[in-house]
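Morning F.,

Quick status update on the modeling queue. The single chain you submitted on Monday has been processed. Sequence for confirmation:
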Amino acid sequence: MTIEALIARYGLFAIFAGAAIEGETVVATGGLIAHRGLMSMPLVILAAASGSFLADQGFFQIGRRYRDHPRLRRWTARPAFQRAIGLIERHPTGFVFAFRFLWGLRTVSPIALGTSAIAWHRFAMLNAIAALLWAGLVATAGYALAATLAGLGARLEHLPHYLIAIAGLGIVFAAFGLWLRHRLRRRAPL
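Structure tokens below.
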């Protein structure tokens, strides 16, 4: 099946769903596809932000609802988790904006935020802004990559071309996330 057929069939829903589950690669791919004119860039960003926002709200509510559950209590009793909660309590706004870029912590972070003292309405407001910012940055990175490759004479027409571009974006985002996570650990060890 060609990439165009996949997009025609699943399009914005695929971006919405992919953004909900650690989806930098899916969102960046949406930017690549928007560059080809197959989808609208504002709709790609909106679908990605919506998927990210709703998933993070759900995980936050799980943390809030089950913070006294024995399983979650065992997890939150760990020293590393307590240090993370301390960081969240000291810098809640910064943490809400940063956790999307911390590779491997995307699902755990909103649960941790749910167990913290941050009010749900404050988290919802910050989460909405952060989701839009994240979706815009990641989709724009995909769009910019496609524009750069097109400027170099590459033609993103076939699935292997997309896969190579997507793999490159995945490596860049993983490297950035690991770098950011390393910098945060040096500041306040988790």
